[in-house]
Amino acid sequence: MSDQLVFEPSAEAKARTWVTEEQYEAMYARSVNDPEGFWAEQAKRIDWIKPPTKIKNTSFEFPNVSIKWFEDGVLNISANCIDRHLPQRASQVALIWEGDTPGTQDHITYQRLYDEVNRFANVLKAQGVKKGDRVTIYLPMIPAAAYAVLACARIGAVHSVIFAGFSPDSISGRINDCESKIVITADEGRRGGKTIALKKAVDEALQKSPGVDKVVVVKNTGADVPMAGGRDVWYADEAAKVPALCEPEPMNAEDPLFILYTSGSTGKPKGVLHTTGGYIVWVSMTHQLTFDYRDGDIYWCTADIGWVTGHSYIVYGPLANGATSLMFEGVPSYPDASRFWQVVEKHKVNIFYTAPTAIRALMGAGPEWADKYEMPSLRLLGSVGEPINPEAWMWYYKHVGKERCGVVDTWWQTETGGFMITPLPGAIPTKPGSATKPFFGVQPVVLSPEGRLQEQTKAEGVLCIKDSWPGQMRSVYGDHERFMSTYFQQYQGYYFSGDGCRRDEDGYYWITGRVDDVLNVSGHRIGTAEVESALVAHPKVAEAAVVGYPHDIKGQGIYCYVTLMTGTTGDDALKTELRNWVRKEIGPIASPDLIQFAPGLPKTRSGKIMRRILRKVAEDDFGSLGDTSTLADPSVVEDLIEHRQNRG
Ligand code: WT7
Fold first, then answer.
1. What are phi and psi for residue 387, nearest 5 degrees?
2. Which of 3, 83, 429, 594 fits 645 for a cystine, CB–CB 3.0-4.6 Å?
3. Which residues line ligand 1 (CB under 6 A)?
4. Where is Mg(2+) bound in this sequence (predicted)?
């Protein structure tokens, strides 16, 4: 081991672990040398209607990329997440729901989950939903969100969950892309003591989505919302009319399970498509081993169901394992900065999984909020969404984990379905800031930006993956070309993650962040191209370029350079107007942090914007701009520097 700070697994973690350090090495070697044998065995963690005989059939060769796992297997995921647990776990709690308002909660047993999901599935069927149809879900963090996705899985419909903070325009774009004819929403959501008008956003979105003919509305706050005759129905009214039981639909392993839209470096968000068999094997296995999950553990992932973390590690992974999963409607700061820790103590949470941005925000509020709570139930802490800086890691370890709990930093993506590089808490010593080692079956490689394979252990470059793993996305919905060109063209023969990384002398991976034009703002992926096209849609904007800059809490902030139409003056009022405009076009998560009015942008003679220069100025690091002589008009740089917005 190197001389960097290293935390060995505690004696307790070693004693209880599913996988020891020696077993990890042997299992890992087998997983890459004999994937067929390894995954045939792992597939047994799932109940198959017809077990697979064909295990792996995958090719990363551009332009014939094709990924199939367990391709002749037949199963149903909702039966795996619910029905099969009933003999042992009918009265065990499957979901603990903690509401935004302190004091509101619910405990949903596996029996009740079964009843609710069966009923929900029959409501969807009664509304005309058939196997293979796409169902858009725009719900707050209430149990109905889990029922809705599991109901889709039960009848073989493909869900497309949209985070309940996205704007009407973003909703309609996603509805139209996958041609869904039905939307499930609620009257309103609650977050941080405020209400969010969800039905209203859907009504507005549907003006641009004429293909939708049904809206199922879950009553949540009880707000009075207009209901369009013939189109909108209350969930409860329909639930009263349908039978209680719904047989799970037999699904092929490669049938689509869900679409989740995510931002890329160009164009509109892509519909990341996940399928059935490989996905459930992957999320169930990673959830069990990375969190060292055992029967009786109370597990809490603070993500929202609108992101992949919520799909894989609030709903599918934990429930496939018969776990008790806590679902939280609120935010870390409401009513105050001790909310997370109150909830941990109240529900006796053993495993807690959150994002660096939340940790940094709570760090900023001061350690006393966490120090007041002993949290004796806690055993393991997890981190996800962006690189965790060592200071935040140490704060988490000390003030939340009381130097007693391990920390697992899990690197993965919407595209990967589940964990890719992560410690196993009883097997792999951790280093603050490193996601450590690959999970079984994952073969990370480091390439130079030009694509040369870095074979020595110590290396730095772009992070690619050499071969397929079962949880991998299969395509971009409706656009396999875009799937291949985004992930398999630039570095042929590999899956390109879009991240940069460093591998140290111990073979540990340190993710350094995106190498493409994707920002990571508070753990949310935002394409600079999306913010730019929102800005240029404003009548006063002629041109816009968006880059990221380091932000203490969000990880990255959104920095916008805006060239205005001739005759328009850039003032603070216009900045506010543009900020609100982007919030309305995309959603509050894409709100610009800094706006600089720039009379000109740095362009090459062929008209290409030199983003490298814009990034440096945004980082307040203009001493090292590099060669600017190829610019069409080098003098614009002086103006950019003079009016820079991020002064250290
Ligand atoms: C991007 C994927 C994975 C679920 C949540 C985000 C960054 C994610 C880590 C980590 C360093 C991380 C990467 C990745 N990222 N986890 N533990 N360490 N970076 O999913 O929206 O698909 O974003 O988030 O840059 O590419 P996503």
1. -60, 135
2. 594
3. 262, 307-309, 384-387, 409-414, 435, 497-499, 511, 513-514, 520, 525
4. 536, 538, 541
